[in-house]
Amino acid sequence: MPPKKKSKEQPPPTRSGFVSLLGAPNVGKTTLLNALVDRKVGIVSSKPQTTRNRITGIRTTEACQIVFVDHPGFHKPQYLLNREMMRLTRSGLRDSDLLLLVMDASEGAGPLDRELLELVKGSGLPRAVVLNKIDKLPQKERLLPLMESLHHADPGAELIPLSALRKDGVAALATQLEARMPEGPFLFPPDQWTTQSETFYLSELIREKVLHACRAELPYAVAVEIEHVEEDEAKGLMKIYARILVEREGQKAIIIGKRGEMAKTIGTKAREEMEAFLGIKVFLGLQVSVAPRWREDSRVVSRLLPPEEAE
Length: 311
Ligand SMILES: Nc1nc2c(ncn2[C@@H]2O[C@H](COP(=O)(O)OP(=O)(O)OP(=O)(O)O)[C@@H](O)[C@H]2O)c(=O)[nH]1
Ligand SMILES: [Mg+2]
Known about the structure:
34% of the residues lie in helices and 22% in strands. With 311 residues, the chain is an alpha/beta fold. The protein folds into two domains: 15-180, P-loop containing nucleotide triphosphate hydrolases (Rossmann fold, 3-Layer(aba) Sandwich), CATH 3.40.50.300; 198-309, K homology (KH) domain (GMP Synthetase, Chain A, domain 3, 2-Layer Sandwich). The strands form two sheets. A six-stranded mixed sheet has the order 2-3-1-4-5-6, with helices on both faces. A three-stranded mixed sheet has the order 7-8-9. It is globular and about 60 Å long. Bound molecules: guanosine-5'-triphosphate and magnesium ion. Residues 29-30, 42, 50-51 line the site of magnesium ion.
């Protein structure tokens, strides 16, 4: 970079850094990421293990750029897919300027939350604990014993109660985080909001609609791959062909539904959101395929975790 000319009116130096969001499954990490970036970056559902990949969301203000990295919820990894997810999460934490451990305040701190608090504390990195879902607490005083015990466990972690869903306390959190970022130039153009590819985002939108439509057990067995995208300029139409992978014939039957109704609902909802996102009419061709044990198949797993993540 060429040396900057010194002038008396130079603006204060910019700040920039990486903040990792981590926590147990379903505590609201991705909801918080979306609230902090003020747009949908990652998919959200009421089922645990919704997020599978490291998702980055970039928040840029005049003086600060924070790259938030949302990780899959921590859990006991049974499958190759899950082991890879956890490996990527751990390796991602090292590069952070601040760790943001998210907990569900309405559930209190369980053994996993406490284990993660120890992990975060042991990192020696700047850190804070978000006590999310305070909208679910009838009385805010109920937070006090939880806050006391967390403060006792790690006096170095700031405790921040908020509601990511209602965006209550999110702006204040962002301001606090900005103040804690190191001085430095922006790492991305100010209008860039993520590093994930558009194709990956489109596949995630489909997976989200599957998660919303299906019963609790099925989602883990589901993966989505975009096979082909083609713009028909004459018709002003984007043609998107995608495949939903499941592990068993019975699961395929559930996703397709009676007279194809479930697949139709999933397809319509995903298409509508794609159209709003892309700003163009979309034709969405969905196929459901059975790929037995894909979660243990290294070829499928490496395809699902984008190459930038596979360092
Ligand atoms: N009431 C309430 N619900 C919330 C809040 N934040 C998130 N949720 C809900 O909690 C559920 C899980 O949210 P996610 O953002 O997907 O949680 P996550 O931690 O990213 O989950 P994984 O990706 O599975 O680890 C969804 O149903 C959200 O709507 C909140 O502040 N209040
Ligand atoms: Mg998530």
